[in-house]
UniProtKB/TrEMBL annotation:
InterPro entries xrefs: Amidohydro-rel, Metal-dep_hydrolase_composite, Metal_Hydrolase, MQNX/HUTI_composite_N, MTA/SAH_deaminase
Protein's name in the database: Amidohydrolase family protein
Pfam families registered for this protein in UniProt: Amidohydro_1 (PF01979), HUTI_composite_bact (PF22039)
Amidohydrolase-related domain segment(s): 68-431
Keyword Protein biosynthesis: no
Domain Aminodeoxyfutalosine deaminase/Imidazolonepropionase-like composite, chain residue ranges per copy: 36-59
Keywords, in A-Z order: Hydrolase, Metal-binding, Zinc
SUPFAM superfamilies cross-referenced by the UniProt entry: Composite domain of metallo-dependent hydrolases, Metallo-dependent hydrolases
């Protein structure tokens, strides 16, 4: 994986002073009244404020006295284009195929580069103000370089890819060779366009039953060649298992295993519906999963009947959390996803139950490992990128504040504290301060998003809220 060593020569040294630091380090320590020194975009040291002020004279300071500081959260599956501009407009009582072909497809066909860039910025500020500092775009993007620019504008860390599928006759489809060439071009162009390495590229296929064996295998090979990761969608609901059984006489993951298209570089989006042999194949090959529980509930994908994430995790499976899209899960709120996943798995009765501390690890250190960024982000310890979130414990949701580390983890995961995010640091740079994104003017963003929403709906031939008012 590409590191960010070259990053942020211009980022000033920063001291985040006096917070109670939830490190998510190997010992899961919580360090009270601790200052974090940040230099060159990375965490340089943890210790008493006085000592670090002497070591880093003249450093800028962010006062976190009395606050809780957690590692930046990781959203491993978040669509950043189109949906953010039409958030909450797709009805929640229609079949998923209708949501795709009556809404998503025409909207994507009519979105231009300016739409994609703005939508990505909307996603980024939405993520950052909820404590999400890394967002992985799983690739349903017509203009990936513009989406990357939109993320970069807000100062978030990200990975972006373009459309990738080769079923003939479908919109955005192309032969496998062309898809792979475009993927290579995107990853290469993003490396050149982003010298600080904050927003990089990865190989992204749409997946499902819409990709040939040649393309699945080629994508994994390309990811190895480019030293990056790869993702595609699989089995969020029962449709993919049904299609693969019909076409190949075996389950989707068994098929991927047979063609050699699994492995530690692959992050499968969803994998909700898994048979025993599929679970075994994922564990055996080290293939990771991005789970988006909010989307499965919003879309009625059957996660309460079919999901088996706790079992996967307890057996050493690599899993990260995602929030999917602004019309599936709707809010890029990783702490909410953590609570939903823990609750769903607890309700399933899997032993041992997934604790809040486990779910917090999925949102941070374990999620980082699952996306191939372990040792780079996900915990607060020297040497890692300085992605930090300061939670304002003066807010009512923190009264009274838990002090015992296990109770603190429960309060962070179950207590709905993502609305208490006060300050956010990404790669050593303060990008949200006192709840306000520093790099983006929200008033301008709001006005432009409203205008682009109306124009996009009109071009796609879909009703606008102005033309079809509907009662709640
Ligand atoms: Zn998706």
């Amino acid at each position: 994986m590409r590191t960010i060593d070259a990053q942020c020569e211009m980022v000033p040294t920063l001291l985040v002073t006096g917070g109670d630091v939830v490190t998510m380090d190997p010992h899961r320590r919580v360090l009270n009244d601790t200052t974090i020194a940040v230099s060159g975009g990375r965490i340089a040291a943890l210790g008493p404020a006085g000592d670090l002020r002497r070591r880093y004279p003249g450093a800028e300071e962010l006062d976190a006295t009395g606050a809780v500081v957690i590692p930046g959260l990781i959203d491993a599956h978040q669509h950043t284009t189109v949906d953010p501009l039409v958030r909450s407009l797709i009805p929640d009582d229609i079949p998923s195929q209708s949501a795709i072909y009556d809404w998503a497809v025409p909207l994507h066909q009519h979105a231009d580069g300016d739409d994609d860039e703005l939508a990505a910025t909307v996603t980024a500020v939405d993520c950052l103000t909820r404590g999400v500092t890394t967002v992985l775009e799983p690739g349903t993007v017509a203009h990936p370089l513009r989406a990357a620019a939109g993320l970069r504008r807000a100062g978030i860390r990200g990975r972006v890819g373009g459309w990738g599928w080769d079923t003939p006759g479908l919109p955005f489809s192309a032969p496998a060779g062309e898809v792979l060439a475009a993927q290579r071009e995107t990853v290469t162009a993003l490396r050149a366009a982003d010298p600080d390495g904050l927003v990089t590229g990865w190989v992204t296929l749409v997946g499902h039953a819409l990709v040939s064996d040649e393309l699945f295998g080629g994508a994994l090979q390309l990811a190895g060649e480019l030293d990056t990761t790869v993702t595609w969608h699989l089995s969020p609901g029962p449709d993919d298992p049904g299609s693969y059984r019909l076409r190949y006489g075996r389950s989707p993951v068994e098929h991927l295993a047979r063609i050699g298209a699994l492995g530690p570089r692959l992050l499968l989006g969803h994998a909700v519906w898994l048979e025993n042999a599929e679970l075994e194949a994922l564990l055996h090959t080290g293939t990771a999963i991005a789970a988006c529980p909010g989307a499965y509930l919003r879309l009625g994908q059957g996660v309460t009947r079919a999901g088996r994430y706790a079992e996967f995790i307890h057996r050493g499976g690599r899993l990260a959390l995602g929030c999917d899209s602004h019309n599936a899960g709707d809010a890029p709120d990783v702490l909410r996803a953590a609570a939903l996943l823990a609750g769903l798995e607890h309700d399933r009765g899997t032993e041992p139950p997934l604790r809040a501390a486990d779910a917090l690890a999925l949102a941070t250190v374990d999620g980082a490992e699952a996306i191939g960024a372990g040792g780079e982000i996900g915990s607060i310890r020297p040497g890692l990128a300085a992605d930090l979130v300061v939670l304002d414990t003066t807010r009512p949701g923190w009264i009274p504040r838990a002090t015992d580390p296990a109770a603190l983890a429960r309060q962070i995961v179950w207590g709905g504290v993502s609305d208490t995010v006060r300050d956010v640091v990404v790669g050593g740079r303060v990008v949200v301060r006192d709840r306000r994104p520093l790099l983006v003017d929200l008033t301008e963003l709001r006005q432009e998003a409203a205008a682009r929403q109306g124009a996009l709906l009109s071009r796609a031939g879909l009703p606008t809220s102005a033309t079809v008012p509907s009662p709640i």
